[in-house]
Each structure stands twice: as C-alpha cells, then as structure tokens.
Write a structure and sequence with these properties.
Shape: elongated
Order of helices and strands: HHHHHHHH
Number of strands: 0
Mean pLDDT: 90
Strand content: under 5%
Structural class: mainly alpha
Low-confidence stretches: 1-16
Number of helices: 8
Oligomer: single chain
Distance between the termini: 68 Å
Largest sheet: none
Helix content: 40-55%
Length: 193
C-alpha cells in the first residue's frame, strides 16, 4: 500500500511538471531543461564574491566589456570553467555539479564551451609568484598575495606576454595556442595578444 501511495505521489509530481531537474538531472523529462540565466549569474556572483581573483571573474568582465554571450562567453560556459576545471568544490558550483553529473541527460550540459587549457587559479598564482621571484615586472606588485587586486588570469597573461619564453608560461602558451578557443575569441586581446 505504501509503495502504491509513493508511486501515485511521484506520478502527480511528474505530471504537474514540477520535477527538479537540478536534483534529478538523469530524468528523461529533463532533457530540454535550461538552467535559468538568473541562477547561472547568481552562481557566478557567489563564486566571484568569495574569490574575486578567479579566472571566471575576469572572463565574465571581459565578455561583458565586448558585449559577447556566445561560445566561451556564454554564461553557462563561464560557470563551467570554474565548476568543471578550477574550483568544483565551491558552493557556487553545487547546482552545476548536480545538473551536469555523469548520468545527466540535460542537453545544456553538453553545450559548455570551456576555455581549452585554462590553468587553475592556484596554478596561475604559483606561476606568477615564480616569475616575480625571478624578476620584478609590471603586475607583480598586485599579486604579492591572493586578493581583489590580483586578477590571476590578467596578471599571468600580462607577465607571459612580456616574457613568453619563461618556463612558467608553458600553461599560458597552451591556453593561448592559435588553435585554441580563447585565442580565436572576442576576448583574446589582453590575454593572448
């Protein structure tokens, strides 16, 4: 009897269209679900409020500046840069990770266009520190420690544009490869050239 009651309640839940696709992303009814833009922006803001120096914060600013919301500038792709590659353990990634879990059927998850070879926040900061320990360069003063002034993607790119032959710039070279999607995007200037 209890099983029948549970099945009836679940059927009503689905018929009403009230399935929570973030929690039940493997449900076939969620295949065309789109995570709301307002929720995506809230998640990005949550991440950037906690750690404003993360690459996605700089990427979002750059995309907004050139008024682009396609490809790597699509808000869901920006969120994916952090939640797939950089800081998936942060609370701002909780919904993304549930929505785009390994067994998810949500089509939107397959549209994420992450920046290929985007180094992680801490990898970039480590490279910045190493470069700045070897020589004093413009930008080093902003990244003595991780803080609001140390936008790691901008500083790392600036240092590597000045001295791209340094071993610490190998990740930057991969990220800015001419075959990469950052190099061929509207925001490549300042990061790759």
């Amino acid at each position: 009897m209890k099983l029948l009651l549970i099945l009836i309640c679940f059927s009503i839940y689905i018929v009403k269209g009230e399935i929570d696709c973030v929690l039940h992303s493997n449900d076939i009814n969620c295949i065309n679900y789109e995570y709301p833009l307002s929720s995506i922006k809230n998640d990005i803001n949550k991440l950037c409020s906690s750690m404003p120096y993360m690459p996605i914060c700089t990427i979002q600013k750059s995309c907004n500046k050139v008024k682009s919301s396609i490809g790597i500038c699509k808000e869901f792709s920006i969120l994916g840069d952090s939640c797939i590659h950089d800081m998936p353990g942060m609370s701002g990634c909780n919904n993304f990770k549930k929505l785009c879990s390994n067994d998810s059927v949500v089509k939107q998850c397959s549209t994420v266009q992450s920046i290929r070879n985007l180094p992680k926040t801490m990898e970039m900061f480590s490279s910045i520190k190493s470069i700045c320990n070897e020589m004093s360069m413009e930008g080093c003063e902003k990244c003595q420690k991780l803080n609001f002034d140390c936008e790691v993607l901008s500083i790392y790119s600036s240092l590597c544009l000045q001295m791209n032959g340094m071993s610490q710039c190998s990740n930057w070279s991969r990220m800015c490869s001419p075959s990469g999607n950052l190099f061929n995007s509207q925001i490549s200037s300042g990061f790759c050239s």
